[in-house]
Amino acid sequence: MTQAEWARDLARQLLEKPLPRRWAHTQGVAARAASLAPILRDDTDTLTAAAYLHDIGYSPELVDTGFHPLDGARYLRDVAQADETLYRLVAHHSCAVKEATERGLFDVLTKEFAPERPDLMDALTYCDMTTGPDGRHLDVAERLAEIHSRYGPEHLVSRSITASTPCIHAAVQAVKAALADVR
Predict the structure, then answer these.
(1) Which residues have C-beta within 8 Å of that of residue 2, sequence separation ≥ 6?
(2) CA 63 to chain centre
(3) What is the pTM of this model?
(4) Of the candidates 60, 35, 52, 40, which has an alpha carbon nearest to the alpha carbon of residue 86?
């Protein structure tokens, strides 16, 4: 069984029934990750696994702090005994340090989980931020607008996404440039 297959099964178990829309998003993010094989090469399985796992912290079974990157990463590290690369990617996906700051969890997140390689972080951010809640591919601007509309302007997630927008755009542009180089 590959790492991605293991991650798919775990994510399905945690998300499919309680959070079917989140499961649809997760499947779309994983499909985007697999599509990056031309630039990821040997890291494709790892990134696809991280894509399956990136939102497991939303599972009602795992919610502890209410900050899904931290809750998911802790579960992967402490319970699932996952590979360190996976739980570090989950902990820091999509510029999570910005939301951690909003929630007063910056020190907790950064002390428990070091960031992963920038190219893998950018790739996971690209996959997440170009996939809508239904798993459909979206332009990054559409995805950011969708998040803002779902949460409203004063919600801490919207404030975090606003603060993260330059980081998100940089990640998306880096992946697009890498893809252009291999074509």
Answers:
(1) 45, 49
(2) 16
(3) 0.97
(4) 52
Question: In which element (H, E) is residue 34 found?
Answer: helix 20-35
Hey, what amino acid is at 149?
S
H or E element that contains 44:
helix 44-53
* Helix axes of 68-78 and 84-92: crossing angle, nearest 10 degrees: 170
Per-residue H/E/C for 89-156: HHHHCCCHHHHHHHCCCHHHHHHHCCCCCHHHHHHHHHHHHCECCCCCECCHHHHHHHHHHHHCCCCH
Q: Which two tokens stand for residue 130?
A: 């170009």
The average confidence (pLDDT) of the chain is 97
Within 8 A by CB and 6+ apart from 76, the residues are 53, 56, 82, 86, 87, 90
Across the range 12-27, mean pLDDT stands at 98
Cβ atoms 88, 18 nearer than 8 A? no
What is d(CA 47, CA 121) in angstroms, rounded to the nearest whole number? 9
In a 13 Å sphere around the CA of 66, the CA atoms on its Cβ side amount to 6
Q: Report residue 121 as tokens.
A: 């972080």
